[in-house]
Design goal:
Radius of gyration of chain A: 13 Å
Oligomer: heterodimer
CATH architecture of chain A: 3-Layer(aba) Sandwich
Number of strands of chain B: 0
Order of helices and strands of chain A: EHEHEHHEHEH
Distance between the termini of chain A: 8 Å
Number of domains of chain A: 1
Strand content of chain B: under 5%
Distance between the termini of chain B: 94 Å
CATH superfamily of the largest domain in chain B: Methyl-accepting chemotaxis protein
Largest interface: A-B, 16 and 18 residues
CATH superfamily of chain A: Response regulator
Helix content of chain B: over 70%
CATH topology of the largest domain in chain B: Helix Hairpins
Shape of chain A: globular
CATH class of chain A: Alpha Beta
CATH class of the largest domain in chain B: Mainly Alpha
Order of helices and strands of chain B: HHHHHH
Strand content of chain A: 15-25%
Number of helices of chain A: 6
Strand order of the largest sheet of chain A: 2-1-3-4-5
Largest sheet of chain A: 5 strands, parallel
Radius of gyration of chain B: 77 Å
Structural class of chain B: mainly alpha
Number of strands of chain A: 5
């Protein structure tokens, strides 16, 4: 499967890509929501791993903006953030995110979440 | 009351002025009333004036007291003004001192922010370098795990080796049995050779008997020669026989010596053969035994190696799993480092806001002396911080701060 990792931290993108690569998945990277929209529009992705706190376009704004594009809106999104807040979780899930994970995460936890959403 | 009486008198007076004598008594009465009213009014006016005079006197007293108070107040106000002026001067000095402290704090804050600004970049570089090494380590451990799995796949080969080793063990057992049989046969052959030696010894003893017979025959020939000489010509025939006997004896002795020499050589050869056979057999059996032992050790070593190989592959597999678990743990820990880096960046942004707020409290020095003083203070602080800095990065950051 191919994932789009959206995070402004290159370290975090690398850590997520190692976890996914170790499980045999492919991946691309984006630094913010705006870039993620552009890359996801090209197609070929099965899932998006999305950070919330990012410059230019944050994760919530991305979730709102993606509804304008049917192919992107159809992609399952797993939110991966340091902000462990109930209202943010509710908002992300209300905007269509399939799962909400908190950093720091365990590799097994991420892979189990991916499996749990039917991927 | 006075007003009512006056009004009544005026009304009566108006009536009196009418041109009729009939109204004279009334006019007198009226005048009398007016006089009474005037008297009453004047008395009251007098009382009123007296009261007013008293009031005026009291007011004078009060005014005097007020004047005294005003003078006191003026004096106090002057003192207060003087005190306020002193306080204002002190406040101004305090304010100047506070501004100086604000700028000192800002300078410290500037250096602190410069040092702190280095942290995220350096942390990210270190994290990336560490991750690169971890990835390389994980790749290598994956290769080791793959090799270990392949070793697990070679278990059939190891079992084949074990089977060959078991067959070799069985062959060695057969060889040992053959060797034991050979030893028995060699012992029997040596025994037979020893018997042959004994027979040769008996043969040589027989030759000794022949030599005795020859010696006695020689003695008989000598006696016959003596006897032939004594009887003269009649003994000539004996002499021929004696000579023949002597020649026979000599040939017998010579033959006997030759046979004895032959038997002696044969005996030595047999003894040598026995000795050589025994020695060779011992050497051969020792060599074969040593070879068998070495082969046994080799097989044992092979079996141990194959067993160790299996154990090693299991250990490698376990170690690789453990390494991978540890690597995952380290990658998880690195997330904390990245989160810390982001927190530092957030703190720096807040620090910048705080700097702006603090700077707004104290205007930046603009005149030449103040700016010179500011620069001097920055360089003093730089020297102090450089002396206290522990790392190269910290020193570099301090050096990079502009005055």
């Amino acid at each position: 499967m191919k994932f789009l990792i959206v995070d402004d931290s290159s370290t975090m993108r690398k850590i997520v890509s190692l976890a996914l690569g170790g499980a045999g998945h492919q991946f691309s990277e984006a630094e913010n929501g705006r870039e993620a929209l552009d890359i996801a529009a090209k197609g070929g992705f099965d899932c998006i791993i999305l950070d919330i706190n990012m410059p230019e376009m944050n994760g919530i704004e991305f979730l709102e903006a993606r509804s304008a594009s049917a192919p992107i809106a159809a992609l399952p999104v797993i939110v991966l953030t340091t902000q462990d807040e109930a209202n943010l979780r509710d908002k992300a899930l209300a905007l269509g995110a399939k799962a909400f994970l908190v950093k720091p995460f365990k590799k097994e936890e991420l892979l189990a979440t991916i499996a749990s959403i039917g991927l | 009351m006075l007003i009512l009486a006056t009004l009544a008198a005026v009304a009566a007076g108006v009536a009196c002025l009418a041109p009729s004598p009939r109204y004279l008594p009334a006019s007198l009465c009226f005048l009398s009333a007016v006089a009474a009213a005037v008297s009453l009014a004047s008395r009251r006016a007098k009382d009123d004036l007296l009261a007013r005079a008293e009031s005026a006197r009291q007011a004078e007293i009060q005014a005097e007291a007020l004047r005294a108070k005003i003078e006191d107040s003026s004096r106090e106000a002057a003192e207060a003004r003087s005190s306020a002026a002193r306080a204002g001067a002190a406040l101004e000095a305090d304010l100047a001192q506070a501004r100086a402290r604000v700028w000192s704090a800002l300078r410290c804050l500037g250096f602190a922010r410069a040092v702190l600004a280095k942290v995220p970049a350096k942390t990210e570089d270190a994290t990336f370098a560490l991750m690169g090494r971890l990835v390389a380590l994980r790749d290598e451990s994956s290769q080791a795990a793959h090799a270990a799995l392949e070793s697990e796949g070679d278990r059939a080969s190891i079992e084949h080796v074990n089977s060959i080793a078991a067959e070799a063990g069985s062959s060695i057992k057969s060889m040992r049995q053959s060797l034991a049989a050979m030893r028995i046969r060699d012992k029997e052959a040596a025994k037979e050779l020893a018997s042959l030696g004994q027979e040769l010894k008996s043969g040589m003893e027989l030759l000794t008997g022949i030599e005795e017979i020859t010696e006695r025959s020689r003695l008989i020939a000598f006696n016959m020669a003596v006897e032939a000489a004594r009887i003269g010509e009649k003994g000539l025939g004996f002499k021929v026989i004696v000579n023949e006997l002597r020649a026979l004896n000599d040939r017998t002795v010579e033959f006997s010596h030759r046979v004895a020499g032959l038997l002696e050589r044969f005996k030595r050869y047999t003894e040598s053969l026995i000795k050589t056979a025994v020695e060779n057999t011992a050497q051969v059996t020792d060599n074969v035994e040593r070879g068998i032992r070495e082969e046994e050790l080799a097989i044992e070593s092979l079996l141990k190696s194959s067993s160790s190989c299996v154990d090693l592959s299991v250990s490698v597999s376990g170690a690789v799993s453990s390494i991978n678990r540890d690597l995952d743990g380290i990658l998880e820990s690195l997330q904390f480092q990245d989160i810390t880096r982001q927190m530092i960046e957030g703190a720096m942004a807040t620090m910048s806001d705080a700097e702006l707020e603090i700077a707004a409290l104290a205007p930046k020095p603009v005149d030449g002396d103040a700016r010179l003083e500011d620069r001097r203070a920055i360089e003093e602080l730089r020297a102090k911080l450089l002396a206290r800095a522990k790392t190269r990065g910290e020193k570099e950051a301090i050096q990079e701060v502009k005055a």
